[in-house]
Specification:
Layout: E1 7-12, E2 16-21, E3 24-29, E4 43-48, E5 61-63, E6 69-70, E7 73-74, H1 85-97, E8 103-108, E9 111-117, E10 123-130, H2 132-136, H3 158-184, E11 189-193, H4 197-201, E12 209-210, H5 214-233
Parallel strand pairs: 1-4, 4-5, 8-11, 11-12
Antiparallel strand pairs: 1-2, 2-3, 6-7, 8-9, 9-10
Helix pairs in contact: 1-5
Length: 234
């Protein structure tokens, strides 16, 4: 919320764009998006890890960059600006939802990312893997757009073999990461977000907190703090 001013929140990923105004959230694939789809607003706060030029022509935009320290979150990257703003904002939103808890934040989109944040707000770093769509297109002769996750042991045709194989790779990687972090932090809360979060949550061996719009939540949190700080300086 931006209080007296209307505030549009925009999350630009590699394959999709999401936006929120007055608690109404919309999304579109990047390849078909046009800026005329966005509602008018006094101020626009943007997280962009994809093609930022798709917003060319708009005014009053503030592009969020990862900060070394913000509120209770301390970035664990050696160079904080190299951490994607989407991951940073998802961590910020997770801390707001689950304060003073050890957190593993998993963002399942075009990339699959894992970030560990301790109860004291210190980000311990993270890792990046290919997401489901990237895996499915990694070999041209097997490439497909199927978003289904199938976890059988064997198949009798190439198409299903590729679908099951990539499903197994993705889910095995996620379950392994969760198990390794749980071994180190038994009281860990696992937070799952991103475009593929719903289908992944159904197949996981572990309980997770599912929040599909964490980046927009983090943007809202950031916007409130940003506005308050700048208002105090005026």
């Amino acid at each position: 919320m931006c209080q007296s001013e209307s505030c549009l929140l925009v999350d630009i990923g590699n394959s999709a764009i999401k936006w929120r105004l007055n608690d109404e959230t919309n999304s579109a694939p990047i390849k078909v998006f046009n800026i005329i789809q966005l509602p008018k607003a006094d101020k626009i706060f943007v997280s962009c890890v994809g093609d930022c030029h798709i917003l060319d022509g708009l005014n009053n935009m503030h592009f969020v960059k990862t900060k070394r320290a913000f509120k209770s979150l301390e970035c664990g990257y050696q160079i904080s600006s190299t951490l994607g703003s989407d991951r940073w904002l998802a961590m910020l939103a997770s801390i707001e939802r689950y304060p003073k808890q050890n957190l593993l934040i998993i963002d399942a989109g075009s990339a699959l990312t894992f970030d560990l944040v301790l109860a004291n707000g210190k980000h311990q770093g993270g890792i990046i893997m290919p997401g489901l769509s990237v895996l499915r297109h990694s070999l041209a002769q097997f490439s497909n757009n199927t978003q289904q996750l199938s976890l059988g042991l064997t198949t009798n045709n190439t198409q299903e073999g590729w679908m099951v194989g990539t499903s197994q790779m993705l889910m095995s990687a996620i379950n392994t990461q969760i198990e390794q972090h749980l071994d180190n932090n038994g009281d860990l809360i696992v937070v799952l977000t991103g475009g593929d979060a719903k289908i992944i949550a159904l197949k996981l061996h572990h309980q997770v907190k599912l929040h599909q719009n964490l980046v927009l939540e983090g943007l809202s949190n950031y916007a409130q703090t940003y506005k308050a700080l700048h208002s105090a300086l005026v």
